[in-house]
Write a structure and sequence with these properties.
Its EC number is 1.1.1.441. One of its GO terms (molecular function) is oxidoreductase activity. It is an enzyme of class 1 (oxidoreductase). The chain contains nine helices and eleven strands.
Length: about 325
């Protein structure tokens, strides 16, 4: 397993190392980022390192006390006061819209959106809007959030510094199957199948988003990252036998949450990716995603269906 380390150096830049590679990142003073699920796990370490680079970072999450505690700790560790929490429940389209309204009221730009939050292997249940939870929260919630923030991202990006959308998927997408006629897994529910489908949908969404922003000449890039196998709370829904195996082997086979955040951070701020979009990243390397994810027709069909499900225009404005 690769060992990854992140730390600050005296002049504010940050270095990320993976294996035999090291990356130096410039300071991000004046830039604004939103990280979903930024109060814990991979998201927390993503927020912390972006804040350490001088970014104004907004944690989007559904637990107020957890979020405020994360803000307190990150401010203390990074000496950056521009870290805040805003409530956003990705299982609720109403909550997502309210979050976007609150963000817009700040009248600030948006340079980086990290779609990080997610659930894994949950029992069959529905979101507030009646969607299967993996598909509704992991995918549709981020689809809607990104679309509602897209105009702000477009206004914030420039020809020399593109705004960036980073979406966290998983190697599980390689075994995912997109059932366009049954996206809610009503015919047959499998936690593993539903989770894999949601992660495949995120890859398809990223590629289609890149097609669209390229077509209209926007200074926005969209990339998808695979954090690897990371020791986080996402595994709380696995069976007891798997939990025992995980407990016994995590030190050997699992990345820490900080290590898992490295590729998201790289995608968010690396100068090497300036103007580069529509790629899949693993261990800070461009990697080929599953063959079906490059199916242009499937990307378009999923996008159109997602617009219908979230009740936004497929080609028009993204107004609330």
């Amino acid at each position: 397993m690769f060992l990854i380390f992140l730390y600050s150096i005296d002049w504010g830049a940050e270095m990320l190392g993976s294996g035999h590679q090291e990356f130096f990142f410039p300071t991000q003073n004046g830039n604004v980022a939103i990280v979903t699920g930024g109060a814990k796990g991979i998201g927390y370490h993503t927020v912390k390192h972006l804040a350490r680079l001088g970014m104004h970072v907004i944690i989007a999450g559904n637990d107020e006390s957890e979020g405020q505690e994360a803000v307190r700790k990150i401010k203390e560790e990074t000496v950056n006061e521009k870290v805040e929490f805003l409530h956003c429940d990705l299982a609720s389209m109403k909550s997502i819209r309210q979050f976007v309204q609150q963000f817009r009221a700040k009248n600030c730009p948006l340079h980086v959106l990290v779609n990080n939050a997610g659930v894994m292997l949950v029992p069959e249940r529905k979101t507030e809007d009646g969607f299967e939870e993996h598909f509704g929260l992991n995918y549709l919630g981020h689809f809607l959030l990104t679309n509602l923030l897209l105009e702000t991202l477009k206004q914030s990006g420039t020809c020399s510094r593109n705004a960036r959308v980073i979406t966290v998927s998983s190697a599980t997408h390689y075994v995912g199957r997109l059932h366009l006629n049954d996206l809610q897994s009503r015919c047959f529910y499998s936690p593993h199948g539903a989770y894999a489908q949601s992660k495949l949908a995120l890859v398809l969404f990223t590629y289609q988003l890149q097609h669209l922003v390229t077509a209209d000449g926007s200074h926005v890039t969209a990339n998808v990252v695979d954090p690897g196998v990371v020791n986080t709370e996402l595994y709380k829904n696995v069976c007891w036998a798997t939990k025992v195996v995980k407990w016994m082997t995590a030190w050997l086979f699992f990345k820490t949450p900080e290590e898992g955040a490295s590729t998201s951070i790289y995608a968010a701020v690396s100068p090497e990716l300036e103007g580069v979009g529509g790629i899949y990243l693993y261990n800070e390397q461009r990697t080929k995603s599953t063959d079906v994810s490059y199916d242009d027709e499937l990307q378009r069909r999923l996008w159109t269906e997602s617009c219908k499900m979230t009740r936004i225009s497929d080609v028009g404005s993204r107004d609330l």
